[in-house]
Write a structure and sequence with these properties.
It is built from 13 helices and twelve strands. Helix content is 43%, strand content 15%. With 317 residues, the chain is α/β, with parallel strands linked by helices. α9 crosses α12.
């Protein structure tokens, strides 16, 4: 949710209203919380256009305090009443939204975000050399916006709990408001030599491909495209049991689920995968098979399937 600016938001509302009135679309499809709120109410005033909304995950926990969260839940409940169709990225997102009283079951459809995975060539040695990672090192990594909601500090704080394993390198890919505090935490824990912050990268798939274990420690996550990329690449995955993630990761079958805000649980799951190759190979193989399965004539998470499902929804609204 972007910061509220009453003056700017009123101007945006008026411009959207005027634009919609001018072009007279059959359907307006809005995205995310704030843009979705402003766009849907501007559209509703005309009473002639169908409204579709894609929250891309919800903000009902993990972001704000109780009072602010309660206000956003109330606004989403009210705005759902003027919305013809709501789209969740996963069953988990839909179910949690319904539990918070947002929309009715018949309003919700589940359409995954399309995930494109470019052809991967073996860059393991090349990338390791550029990042100064020893050839015998096991790489455990994550990719995220480095903001509190992504829970990266719990991943960092799991690292000192893994002292038994001496050949581990931890890769943190991404940038954000929490980067400096995470770097300070790494230094204060005495693990600076084990952790690499890559910053923003445009070769995320390549970086995931060199990881031996992928970790997603989010406090709230609608789906997680990088989880899907890791699944497609056949990586054993550890992820938190929040919102949409359990719709992707079936615990013990397609990865390991852990509670959020729990560094010890992350460390224990890493130990489990490192100590038991049979489990690691099973969950990674199952994840790759499921994520690349053909559904509706297209790979499960492909852009083509996403567009097919969207077109079907538009035609039947």
């Amino acid at each position: 949710m972007r910061n509220i600016s009453l003056f700017k938001d009123i101007i945006a509302f008026w411009k959207i209203y005027c634009l919609i009135k001018k072009i007279k679309p059959d359907i307006v499809h809005t995205h995310t919380s704030k843009a979705g709120f402003v766009g849907r109410w501007a559209t509703w005033l005309l009473r002639t256009t169908k409204i579709v909304h894609n929250p891309h995950g919800h903000i009902f926990y993990g972001y704000y305090g109780k009072l602010k969260t309660a206000l956003f839940v109330l606004l989403e409940r009210l705005t759902a009443k003027i919305t013809d169709k709501l789209i969740a990225l996963t069953d988990g997102e839909r179910n949690e939204s319904l539990a918070f009283g947002v929309g009715k079951s018949h309003q919700w459809s589940v359409i995954h975000s399309g995930v494109e995975l470019k052809e991967i060539r073996d860059k393991r040695l090349e990338i390791r050399k550029k990042l100064n990672i020893p050839e015998n090192s096991i790489i455990i990594g994550t990719v995220a916006r480095l903001d509190p909601i992504k829970g990266i500090k719990y991943f960092v704080e799991a690292i000192p709990l893994l002292t038994y394993f001496t050949t581990l390198t931890f890769l943190i890919v991404g940038d954000g408001s929490e980067k400096k505090s995470l770097e300070f935490r790494v230094e204060s824990l005495g693990i600076k030599g084990k952790v690499i912050f890559t910053g923003m990268r445009d070769d995320v798939s390549d970086l995931i491909s060199i990881m031996d274990i992928y970790v997603q420690p989010s406090l709230n996550e609608g789906m997680g495209k990088t989880i899907v990329q890791a699944m497609m690449l056949g990586k054993p995955i550890i992820a938190t049991n929040v919102q949409g993630i359990p719709s992707l990761i079936k615990d013990g079958e397609r990865g390991i689920l852990v509670p959020s805000k729990n560094s010890q649980a992350i460390a224990d799951a890493i130990k489990k995968l490192l100590s038991n190759k049979e489990i690691s190979q099973k969950v990674s193989a199952n994840a790759k098979k499921w994520s690349t399965e053909i559904v509706d004539g297209y790979p499960r998470f492909s852009v083509e399937r996403q567009l097919y499902l969207l077109n079907r929804l538009y035609e039947n609204i």
